[in-house]
Amino acid sequence: MSDALPETNQCPVCSGKLERDGMCLACLLQEGLEAAGVTGTGEAKAA
After folding, report:
1. What are phi and psi of 18, to 5 degrees?
2. Mean pLDDT, the chain, as a whole number?
3. Is 22 helix (H, G, I), strand (E, B) or coil?
4. Rounded distance, CA 23 to CA 26, Å?
5. What average pLDDT score do residues 30-46 get?
């Protein structure tokens, strides 16, 4: 018997659909915006 969890195609963070790389598009976009220093208003953060 295997103790492995069944694979899911749902994001554990936001419940969105996972893409082939294991991240959903919403979380991938959010990660990219944070890396670029963009706030929720679309303005860049002051350095």
Report:
1. -75, 140
2. 81
3. coil
4. 8
5. 78
Element (H, E) at 31: helix 25-36
For residue 23, which of 15, 34, 11, 33 has the smallest C-alpha distance?
A: 11
In angstroms, the CA 28 to CA 17 distance is 12
**Cα distances (Å, whole numbers) of residue 10 to 4, 7, 33, 39, 44:** 17, 9, 22, 26, 30
Q: Is the dihedral of CA 33, 34, 40, 43 positive or negative?
A: negative
Residue with the two structure tokens 């350095």? 47
- CB–CB of 27/35 below 8 Å? no
Task: Record the pTM.
Answer: 0.59
42: left (phi over 0), alpha (psi -120 to 50) or beta: left
